[in-house]
Amino acid sequence: MNEFVFFFNNVIVSGLVLGSVYALGAVGVTLVYGILRFAHFAHGDMMTMGAFFTLLIAWGLAALGLTAPIPLGIIALPVAIVVTAVVALGIDRAFYAPLRRHGAKPVTLLIASIGVTMMIQGLIRLAFGTGTYTFFADVPKRLYRLDVPIEGATRTINFTQPQVIMVAATIAAVLALHFFLTRSRLGKAMRAVSDNADLARVSGIDTRLVVRVTWIIAGGLACLAGTMLALDVTLKPDLAFNIVLPIFAAAIVGGIGQPYGAIAGGYLIGFAETLAVFNWNAVLRPFRDVLPDWLPTNLALVPTEYKLTVAFVILVITLLVRPSGIFKGQQS
Amino acid sequence: MSLVSLAGVVAGYGGAPILGGVDIAIDASDIGVIVGPNGAGKSTTLKAIFGLIRVTAGEIRFDGRDITNAAPDRLVPMGLGLVPQEKNVFTSMSVQENLEMGAFVRRDDFSDTLGFVYDIFPPLKAKRRQKAGELSGGQRQMVAMGRALMSRPRLLLLDEPSAGLSPRYVLEVFEQIVRINATGVGILMVEQNARQALGIASRGFVLASGRNRFTGTGRELLDDPEVARSFLGG
Hints:
The complex is a heterodimer. Chain A is mainly alpha-helical.
């Protein structure tokens, strides 16, 4: 039974947490692609930037003498989301909007976004150096242990407070996005622009307004995702740049331009990664007397260092078998 | 005063102009039909009115106001609507959502207009929750026209509304166009089905190589032996 709990902790809990971060990131990528038709490479660093905004505001709150039972980062998060959304709007206005006005091709915008990613990384390193920061300098990260009410289980199901908040925040964000896209006038207009930009224009839909709303949502979700990731691990300048590729894989696997697909793709890749690096030997331990000796001690499909390849394998298989993704996405 | 008037409109995509000076004028009570051979600039004329292609000379007036090169998000609230020929529905959205997008520019209650659209296109009401991409060609055309009607236009521009439809649907679509016109909406449409379209037209315009060749009432054009020989296939 302990083996099952070990599996639960390492695959289900970790997969849920990783999947949530990927899903939130991929939704932003997919929305920007759906509306503006380019792969926004700087999305990862927008996440990192959002997390640093949260850290700054949390420091500010601490300097004001505020204390709370939950990490100050959580309290700072709503403000940081607003700040990141505004900065995302500013980035669009300064770098992407002028290119769009000149009728730049999507690939030009993609290259521009690589430039933006370098710029954000540079600015973060300039301000914060290359070190690692934590939201738990003052308060300890609270750990929950759930006893498993089954005989023979001595291990507990473990998860941390930020992980609970992360999954709850992801569910809340996804629900809010769902209601926005299906019930509100602007949300429907976003879907219309994503579906058929020319017809949306002919219908009199203000596409510039839709573009602004898209950046606000993408920026806000990026901040949420980045902060959640930083709360779960630690905050460093390359926090999310390292996971921008699985995030893109999640968006493409889900069907690019499809928000629900991006969420499905995010969890799919999250679980696939945790399953692939899980050492199955731990589960086989009860049978160690009957198992042959030559069995290696590490039975993981992929060594942890190569976790990133899992996303690519799934991406390649998807592109070969179902190029439009799980939810039929746009053809570029 | 005409509802819409084009005077010496020259327009194109940057290279040689496609329209070399087009004159068109219709009233709110009119059904205007533009016919002519392929490449005559029929669709381009509609695009020029709707600000989708650059007008380099001439003038377009709507209700007395100069709308030359005005963008769609300004024209739709003024009372112009366009039904493009292709890709004229939001395929991933429901029929009702398509119609709601047509009413995007309106901030008032548009349930009356929704009722009006369902009234003239009854099949849409039954399929209002279905995705527009799952409908037949004829029903899609209804969604497209309904979408354009939702902004309550005073002038409806239709780009080949009968393209790709079965003969039964062609007749039905033309009947609806007459019905929409009877509610006070001026119609300007481009048609390949020249004979049938001119049959319902109060104003007819024959374009060739980006210029007016013949102008008259629908009847006059149908009866003109030269128009019949050159443009209506004898």
